[in-house]
Amino acid sequence: MRVVFLSPGYPAEMPEFVRGLAEVGAQVIGVGEGPAAGLPEKSRKALAEYIQVPKLFDEDSLVAHLSAALRGRKVDRVESLWEPLVHAAARVREALGVPGMSADTVNGFRDKQIMKERVARAGLRVPKAARCRTAAEVRAAAAAVGFPLILKPIAGAGSADTFRCDTPAQLDEAIKKTAQVTEASCEEFIDGEEYTYDTICVNGVPVYENVCRYLPRPLVARTNEWISPAVVTVRDLSQPHIQQGMQLGRGVMRALGMGTGFTHMEWYRKPDGEVVFGEIGCRVGGARLIDQMNFTSDIDLYREWARAVCFGKVQITRPRSYNCAIIFKRAQGQGTIVAISGLRDYIHRNRDHIMVEELLRPGQRRRDWKQTLVSDGYLIVRHPTWEGALALADDAAQTIGLFAREGG
Description:
Blueprint: E1 2-6, H1 14-23, E2 27-32, H2 41-46, E3 49-52, H3 59-69, E4 77-79, H4 86-96, H5 103-110, H6 112-121, E5 129-132, H7 135-145, E6 149-153, E7 163-165, H8 168-177, E8 184-188, E9 193-202, E10 205-215, H9 218-222, E11 230-233, H10 240-256, E12 261-269, E13 275-281, H11 289-297, H12 301-311, E14 323-328, E15 336-341, H13 343-350, E16 354-359, E17 377-383, H14 386-399, E18 401-405
Parallel strand pairs: 1-2, 1-4, 2-3
Antiparallel strand pairs: 5-8, 6-7, 6-8, 9-10, 9-12, 10-11, 11-14, 12-13, 14-17, 15-18, 16-17
Helix pairs in contact: 1-12, 3-4, 4-5, 5-6, 6-10
């Protein structure tokens, strides 16, 4: 089984996927712009071959270069789990005659307006939305959609460049802040709890499923620096309101023609119980979500994804034993981390429940919290009960502090 893998060294989770492919017996050909020597060691060890291309994000150039480099060799799969490259992977598949989702199918997972139109045609509840390319089109869409509304990029990932607008004045400000966005979606704001629905699929059929809840909603977390946002996996997927969201997600994947691989969907549960589709990507969720899912059941989804891609099956026998929370921390002040408070006591209180602690240390520079959910570090904790997991997350949010200053 020969697998071409785009960007084997970045983002941070990608070396683990390359490792997973190698562990199930695949011959992995990595493709990237930089030299092989610059790859993480885990990627280098797992790759059978590396092809350096001049322009990884220029799809026409990438297709031409790989078509020439791989001419005469059989390729079984072409994969990417990084949002900016999933469409490029589909283009390469088509050029090489490799099985997998077509570029048109993948476009339904990338273009938010096409996505919503295809899902709506299947009779599923989606927010009212319109594609906008100019400020005038945004204002016209706002008049049709009504306030409150959300303005966000058509092909974005996460909640970057995403704004809630309750008034025309806030809309004007959002238009200014998204001036660099070439296409935006102006859509109905759905008030309610926000969840994920994550899967590994084989030919569109989920062979692994997961649900997480955002605390608070990402849009709130993205606009309030003082918040320590958390994402919590739900151990018990049999709960009726969780099942509603999962049924919605299965319908969405049928409507979009999902093939084999990871999906990451966001959905809402309104106060009246109605579930509403948000958006979906045909790739794994970011910000260490896969690690949370692994800790929920003590499994290795990097390897199980690879098994699904290569052989159309997974081998997951362990039950969902935990609710697993990741808590992202943001330092007070700007510049360099100078102190951490509360961490030692938190570890002493909760040692048995802490799976990962990756906070920045004194001497390290703060990250831009608006550009990365990981912010200034995170903790991953788990507990058999939902209440226990929430208590662990709240404890970390309330008692651990990071402090920064310029010139620190």
